[in-house]
Amino acid sequence: NAGVTQTPKFRILKIGQSMTLQCTQDMNHNYMYWYRQDPGMGLKLIYYSVGAGITDKGEVPNGYNVSRSTTEDFPLRLELAAPSQTSVYFCASSYPGVSQPQHFGDGTRLSIL
Amino acid sequence: KNEVEQSPQNLTAQEGEFITINCSYSVGISALHWLQQHPGGGIVSLFMLSSGKKKHGRLIATINIQEKHSSLHITASHPRDSAVYICAVRSGGNNDMRFGAGTRLTVKP
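Predict the joint structure of the above. Result:
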């Protein structure tokens, strides 16, 4: 099992450009999450999904969009990149239940210049 | 004030020392997680606690629900333990976790 796979690992964007961060998992997890991690701050939830076709906003959703057409994939889209979106992005997945651990991808380091 | 506070922010220890990392939270929770973030960035789950104490190898995690406090202990620390340790809490009925800012541990040989 590959677990949670994120691509790309690194990306530099210009202000106003758009891009999609890819996330796929092979553990048949219903729940998937997107977080951003800024220096000195805890991970912040951007969006989450409890199953194919169902998505919901987290704590910091502005400037991002998601879709969940399959159980395996949960892409995160930035439509108009802004410097404030410079961050490290993590995708995670889990089974339902508050005691279930989340499995994280290796992260995508994104710089907006 | 963050819902999850960790202390210390940074910790340097000599190999073999006993390490304690603290986590305090201000919300009602159904579970508390300790995570380890490797220098390369990958994050792995170490423990899930809802009460009491758990042990895995040289790592011990405790939680006091009444005091809203958890500790992560590392016995006989080793340079390979160098990482960022993150405390995260889940509230009942919520689908997200709230994370502390992490404690950066460096263990010197």
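Chain B has a mean pLDDT of 92.
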